[in-house]
Automatic annotation (TrEMBL):
Pfam families: HATPase_c (PF02518), PAS_4 (PF08448). Its EC number is 2.7.13.3. It catalyses: ATP + protein L-histidine = ADP + protein N-phospho-L-histidine. Signal peptide: none annotated. One of its GO terms (molecular function) is phosphorelay sensor kinase activity. It comes from Adhaeribacter arboris. This is histidine kinase. The lineage of its organism: Bacteria, Pseudomonadati, Bacteroidota, Cytophagia, Cytophagales.
Length: 690
């Protein structure tokens, strides 16, 4: 409803004075006022427009000034929203009716785009209508004020977008923090976060807590309970990272950890990384520690090193060349035997190509074999290797590929020197022809030897018969002499003619008779031994037989206080003539007692062992011993190396005779003043029954 009583600007007042001059002054002031304002008459005709309004709305002066405001706006191409005109009219009518200011809700109007002719930009306006009242209290003018709130709205929208992004970032950061914390907690490595200059535990994952052996560390300073921690190298390194911001890493650090509840220290090895944590001001405000428990790896490595050391010891002791070549044909391992061949320490060969080490000529000899080994083929071959002009070897070689995850990483080499065998084979081949030519001569010689052997056999038989006959025929005269001497002693005793001289002579004659009887007895034994060489063998328990011999020698054992140690398993047996085996054991044990050192009791050790071809009986004593230069006399008939001890010198002869007949042998080791060791070798497959 428009106010009909409003006076137009420039009319005459009741006092007769013109207001035109005043209006123009007021109009100039209005135009210059800050803010986008339009002065309207009560009938909504545009009376004046401020400069800021033109600037804000890009309106054309001729389209508004003097025209009906609402019609001008409705006709403007910038006004696209019909409701905006209606709402504007309602607000103006309300102010005219009430005489009170009214502020509309924010509305949008389009304004021409100064940068793109014909285009429009949507602006948001805050509109206020303020009445100018006359002296009668009626609305004389209306001031239409607009404030472009588009920048404010844009700022608010930007703030909202920024706040939304910030909230989304915070939510994302929180999600990341939760994920990291979950990851840290589930990580198989020990992780902790130290906060602030006091390095207080802010976060500890379960793995780190296990390393703490159950002690509660959260909220406490790092190494807080450790006396003089400032002097501890680990604390100093971690403190240095906090002060400098430079990360630190160490491998294989030994840290003794205290275990509850027994308080026992356990050695653990760690690889750990310490990194600085930065605040938003890019200042160090904490530390992150990642600790990897590598105790098992360290122990495994040490075990591997110990194993490698043992392998080195073993391979260095071998008389063969043991090495390892990688895919580039370079040495990665070489044992001590390489030094003797190539005049360099094995360490100096590592990393060098085999071609350079062995020489070009030798390398060309095995080049194709090396290629095949690196292709995964296992090889064994022999070759003649010209390493140097003055050093040529015949070798047997084994190449063993080292296959890891289906791929050849290298191969092991084992080189055996067979030069002597090759030369021996060559010499053997050269001698074969000579052997063939000698075969006929040997055949002829063998025929002669057989003839001679038959003659010797007859001679041996005749000799045995002679010895037997002589010993048998001499027994009767000796016994007669012994009887006559006895008769003479009795007769002289009756006649009291038993002078000391006669007594001594008779005594000497009787001793000579006894020695002669012993000699005849030994000759008889030798003859029996020759004739009994074909006695049937049987399975004899060795322990039982030794016990029987000990009983036979019991008086001598007691007299000498001998200690006899039998180290023979109860089930040990020999396939042999029992009588001859008893003779061997009896003579060896008897000699050990007979020839004992006068300053110590005899100690005799009897043991029994086996080789591939023989069963070996060993008798060792601590007796007088003898010079091995006299060994050739030891087994000779009637030969004695110690004259101060009674004996006929026939025992060892008989032992050797028995074992020779059985196809065995006897060995002796001795040292004067320390004792002797006799080893009797019984063949497992006898030539004939002993």
């Amino acid at each position: 409803m428009l106010n009909k009583d409003a006076k137009p600007i420039g009319s005459v007042t009741p006092g007769g004075g013109s207001t035109d001059g005043l209006f123009h002054d007021l109009e100039s002031v209005f135009i210059a006022l800050p803010g986008a304002n339009v002065l309207l008459s009560p009938d909504l005709v545009v009376e004046a427009i401020s400069n800021d309004y033109y600037t804000a709305t890009q309106a054309q002066k001729e389209c508004l000034l003097g025209n009906h405001f609402l019609e001008a706006l409705a006709n403007s191409p910038a006004t696209r929203e019909v409701n905006a005109i209606n709402n504007l009219q309602a607000s103006l009518e309300q102010v005219l009716a009430t005489g009170q200011p009214h502020e509309m809700e924010r509305v949008s109007f389009d304004a021409p785009d100064p940068h793109q002719p014909g285009a429009f930009i949507t602006h948001y306006w805050q509109i206020r209508h303020t009445p100018v009242l006359g002296t009668n209290g009626q609305v004389r003018y209306l001031i239409h004020s607009v404030i472009n709130v588009t920048p404010k709205l844009q700022v608010e929208e930007q703030l909202r977008d920024s706040l939304r992004r910030e909230q989304e970032a915070l939510r994302g950061a929180e999600q990341i923090r939760h994920r990291l914390e979950s990851l840290f907690r589930q990580a198989p490595v020990a992780i902790c976060i130290l906060d602030g200059p006091d390095l207080v535990y802010e976060f500890i994952n379960p793995t780190y807590q296990q390393l703490a052996m159950g002690f509660q560390q959260l909220g406490k300073p790092f190494m807080g309970n450790f006396a003089e921690k400032e002097k501890h190298p680990l604390y100093r390194r971690i403190r240095e990272v906090y002060e400098t911001g430079q990360s630190y890493e160490e491998r294989g650090l030994l840290i003794p950890l205290l275990r509850e509840p027994d308080g026992r220290l356990e050695n653990h090895y760690f690889n750990y990384i310490v990194q600085a944590r930065y605040s938003v001001q890019n200042q160090v405000d904490g530390l992150l520690i990642f600790a990897f428990d590598v105790t098992d790896q360290i122990k495994s490595r040490k075990a591997a090193e110990a194993s490698a050391h043992q392998l080195r010891l073993v391979t260095d002791a071998l008389p063969v060349l043991v090495g390892y070549l990688d895919k580039e044909e370079k040495y990665r391992f070489a044992n001590q035997a390489y030094k003797d061949w190539f005049l360099q320490n094995p360490e100096e060969l590592l990393g060098r190509p085999v071609r350079e080490v062995v020489g070009e000529k030798a390398y060309q000899t095995v080049k194709d074999k090396i290629i095949r080994a690196l292709q995964g083929e296992r090889l064994t071959f022999e070759a003649k290797m010209p390493y140097r002009d003055d050093f040529v070897k015949h070798i047997r070689v084994d190449y063993v590929p080292d296959i890891q995850e289906g791929k050849v990483a290298g191969f092991y080499t084992m080189v055996t020197d067979i030069t002597s065998q090759v030369e021996a084979r060559k010499a053997l081949q050269e001698s074969e022809q000579q052997a063939k030519s000698l075969a006929q001569e040997l055949a002829l010689a063998n025929e002669g030897l057989q003839k001679i052997n038959r003659q010797l056999s007859r001679t041996n038989v005749d000799l045995d018969n002679f010895i037997y006959t002589a010993s048998h025929d001499l027994k009767a005269p000796i016994l007669n002499i012994e009887g006559l001497i006895g008769l003479l002693r009795r007769q002289l005793s009756k006649e009291n003619s038993w002078s000391e001289l006669i007594q001594e002579i008779v005594h000497l004659v009787l001793e000579s008779v006894q020695r002669f009887k012993h000699t005849i007895h030994h000759l008889t034994d030798i003859t029996k031994l020759q004739k009994e060489s074909l006695l049937e063998a049987s399975q004899i328990n060795l322990v039982d037989l030794i016990k029987d011999v000990q009983l036979d020698l019991y008086p001598d054992i007691q007299a000498t206080q001998a200690q006899i140690r039998v180290e023979v398993v109860p089930e040990a047996t020999l396939q042999f003539s029992e009588k001859n085996l008893r003779s061997i054991i009896y003579n060896l044990l008897s000699n050990a007692l007979k020839y004992h050192a006068p300053d110590r009791a005899p100690r005799v050790r009897i043991d029994f062992s086996e080789t591939t071809e023989f069963k070996v009986l060993t008798v060792q004593d601590n007796g007088l011993g003898f010079n091995l230069a006299q060994e050739h006399k030891l087994f000779t008939m009637f030969m004695r190396l110690h004259d101060h001890v009674e004996g006929a010198g026939i025992g060892l002869y008989m032992v050797k005779k028995i074992i020779d007949n059985a196809g065995g042998t006897i060995e002796v080791q001795s040292k004067v003043g320390e004792g002797s060791t006799f080893k009797v070798y019984f063949p497992k497959k006898a030539i004939h029954n002993p």
